[in-house]
């Protein structure tokens, strides 16, 4: 019987599934040394976030075939070390989507009918039927910000209440949203037209305070706002002011900028209801986080394919090590393209050049897809599921080869949105990724750190103007390059900077004479 080690608490049903196929040992709260001892002869290990599987620990495992992480993130597993040893890593990213969606709907109903406030009043011995007059969900407009796993589950359920649904998710093509019966619009428009607004995006530098003072000022007087995603998505000060002055109707919050909240004035308001980050806290979500991975462990121990595989250990090592630098290059190009385009991609054309044209480039393509998807999705994009996710988002992929290239072995990637396209050529120099062209302008930059890409008209003094403005805001320029096609024509400036440039500085850059656009990219 295979030995299955469980080192974090998982649901008893998951344990039962595993007991059918192996000798199960449950040992929680282990020190790294104790874990090393136990993992030595284990065939499978099941963890949550409490167990850290470093390279040192993975290297000790002699028989390990599968690492199962019950839940979403796999930051506590050294994926590379597992992959190199041919150990499959699986997780259960979808386990809590329904629970969070149901809490969202619960919040919408509770806020619409003042259920928590009316309950408290009733328990105080009052019989106040006037103060808690509510509104219906029926025929109201629901604005969903972020149409990923949870946002889509909310949309399905809201439709059953007869709501009209609008959405903001720049990375979802219009047709995909249309198939779900959702009209896409920008975030400000969504705030104007919605009676209920709910957030389902990951917290990133782009989504921080996606609902700020400006957005709140556009909302209807009766608007109800729900946040079951992450605290930093809403500017809590602006929300407090609006709710205090009854500029909007109410808010329902499962998440806060600081958790647990300390002296948060929002919690003093009668038109705020909330829960302590309980979106995923259901019997079913916790059960399925465990049972989904347990079922996958069974499949892997039986030599069958599993669904939620996070890494790709089945590739021959020799092939993997040859392609690895190109995979890193195409992933970086993908990262850069999605940040530059900042909209949904309809089509990508990948051209493999030089000797690379003779290789099997499937993994290079998959890495590129990971690059364009991972900055916009919460978690769970990997080399296995990236093509399926891209297909679900209607991204058309075309591949080609050219045997000759001035850059040797190189990749050219053109990504097309509805109105704009970005093309990037990259190659390797001493085994490291280097960008050689951006939109046809020749450059020579390492795709790493923070990069500012500025489109401008080639005029004397442009470099000085940009340098001066950034200097005024204390932004240090570590490197700069200018690419132009002809003197006096449209050109680009690419700057490596030491720190993130604040949005207001980017806006000021855009307003300088002869500057056409400026974008900041975090690689
Ligand atoms: P997901 O990755 O499946 O979907 C995220 C969606 O956001 C994607 O469709 C993506 O295109 C979109 N997006 C990314 N950047 C955007 C931007 N700048 N503007 C608009 N849309 C953007 O994620 P998910 O599993 O649906 O999770 C959604 C949120 O729910 C996350 O913040 C997650 O942390 C949170 N969550 C909360 C709980 C809880 O206990 N309350 C539990 C699970 C998840």
What ranges have pLDDT less than 50 throughout 5 or more consecutive residues? none
Looking at CATH, which topology of the largest domain would you report? Rossmann fold
Percent helix, as a range, is 25-40%
Broad CATH class of the largest domain: Alpha Beta
What does this structure look like?
The chain has 17 helices and 22 strands. The chain is of the alpha/beta class and 523 residues long. It has four domains: 3-94 and 284-301, Rossmann fold (3-Layer(aba) Sandwich); 97-274, NAD(P)-binding Rossmann-like Domain (Rossmann fold); 312-447, D-3-phosphoglycerate dehydrogenase, domain 3 (60s Ribosomal Protein L30, Chain: A), CATH 3.30.1330.90; 449-523, ACT domain (Alpha-Beta Plaits, 2-Layer Sandwich). A hairpin with a 2-residue loop joins strand 17 and strand 18. The longest helix has 25 residues, at 317-341. The radius of gyration is 26 Å and the shape is globular. The protein starts with a strand and ends with a strand. The model has no long low-confidence stretch (mean pLDDT 92). Bound molecules: nicotinamide-adenine-dinucleotide. The site of nicotinamide-adenine-dinucleotide has 32 residues, from helix 5 and helix 7. Residues 451-523 form the ACT domain. Pathway: Amino-acid biosynthesis; L-serine biosynthesis; L-serine from 3-phospho-D-glycerate: step 1/3. Its EC number is 1.1.1.95. GO terms for molecular function: NAD binding; phosphoglycerate dehydrogenase activity.
